[in-house]
TrEMBL record:
This is Uncharacterized protein. It comes from Nymphaea colorata. Belongs to the histone H3 family. GO terms for molecular function: DNA binding; protein heterodimerization activity; structural constituent of chromatin. Residues 1-36 are annotated as: Disordered. GO terms for cellular component: nucleosome.
Length: 71
């Protein structure tokens, strides 16, 4: 049995979608520009790797020595 071609469906909401896009563009342009500089965000894992390298280079103790008694 031969395959039949699908009939294209007409969308009735296209004019509304175009209007909606126009409204979004206007809102985007009229939005107030936030003042100040964004804080820098590093990629995932970058800061962790930097900390690992830092602590591997150093000789400082991460946990301070504490006095103890032997029993």
């Amino acid at each position: 049995m031969p395959r039949s071609k699908a009939v294209a469906k007409k969308s009735s909401d296209k004019p509304a979608a175009k209007k909606n896009l126009h409204v979004q563009k206007v809102e985007r342009k009229s939005a107030p520009v936030s003042t100040g500089i964004k804080k820098r965000r590093f990629r995932a894992g970058t800061v962790a790797l930097r900390e690992i390298k830092r602590y591997q280079r150093s000789t400082e103790l991460l946990i301070q020595k504490a006095p103890f008694q032997r029993k």
